[in-house]
Amino acid sequence: PSWASQLWNTGAASRPVASPPPSLLHPPHPPLFEDAYATQRQRTRRNPNPLAHVFQSSSAPSGIQSRAPSLARTYSRRAESADLDDDPNATVRRKRKVDLSPEPSDHDRPRSKSHLKPPKLAPSAWQLYFTDWIQRHQATNTRKLNVAQAAKEAGVEYAQLSNAEKEPYKRRSQAMKEIREREYSAYMTSLTPDDIKRENTFRAAQRKAGKSRKGNIKDPNAPKKPLSAYFMFLQRIRSDPELVKDVFGDETETTKQSVLAAGKWRSMTDDERKPFLAQAEQEKLEYEAARKMYEDGTVGYGTSISFSVLPGNP
Q: Which stretches are annotated as coiled coil (predicted)?
């Protein structure tokens, strides 16, 4: 055929085939400094044998760097669930307890020392005599006194004194005690409820630690608690000589009188108890209102509360 003759056409075979210009095959890239949005691509070296890391001999060198063993301790549920009694070799992780409670302020924190400074106790008759004895000894002697030896010698001399010789010291001691009582009463009256509360907190902590046996301070300015209905009945009996004769008879002992009064109270009817119960309830309401006024600071410290200022009273 006609087309087969072209296969043996030497002129067409020797003619070079025109190749496309290189600009079409590989277009030139602009420099990086001219194109602000150009990114430089890093050439990655392909592994000629992708299955080499799968079928790799143990003696052949590996292109993959082996990682160093991690020193971090792996998580183990056994560390939390194991107990020392079950496995003595087990590692038990104890969680640190975090105290989320707010720290007590300086006002609420128990003090190591009382902040009250009441007047000092008055000296006794012996203490006054011992003070005078030391002054006389220092005036007549120049040698230094030993307190223990001085107290022993002064004690022997004080024991040999007559009652008439001791009487001046006793009178001085009694007068100083009366002055101290007045100063102490005025000092306790000047205390605020906050001072008494802090002192009672301190004393409670001392009693709990076994360092003191002092009881709490009673607020002298606070309203007094009212009597119960039974104690009002008992007070009524003691104020009336006829009721005393009727209930107690010839009994004079206080304990036995209380037993007789309790028996009389139990034998009374509800109508007979009603006046005492009503009075006790009224005084209880007045006390609660007065107590609230005192704690709120409506009534000044050191003043007595008059129930006439309460609501509902004339």
A: none
Query: How many alpha carbons lie under 13 Å from residue 249 in its C-beta half-sphere?
Result: 6
**End position of a domain, from candidates 175, 190, 205:** 190
Distance CA 276, CA 282 (A): 10
Query: For residue range 56-71, what is the model confidence (pLDDT) as tens digits?
Result: 555 555 555 555 555 5
Averaged pLDDT of the chain = 75
As a whole number of angstroms, the distance between CA 164 and CA 129 comes to: 14
Backbone angles phi, psi at 141, to 5 degrees: -125, 150
Domain that holds residue 263: 229-296
Q: 189-192: long-range contacts at Cβ-Cβ below 8 A with a sequence spacing of 24 or more?
A: 189/220, 189/221, 189/301, 189/302, 190/301, 190/302, 191/116, 191/217, 191/219, 191/301, 192/301
| Count of C-beta atoms within a 10 Å radius of residue 118 | 12
Give how many domains the chain has, as a whole number. Answer: 2
Confidence band, pLDDT 50/70/90 cuts, at residue 275:
very high
* pTM score above 0.70: no
| In the predicted structure, residue 8 carries a pLDDT above the cut 70 | no
Element (H, E) at 127: helix 125-140
* Helix 125-140 / helix 163-190 crossing angle, nearest 10 deg: 110
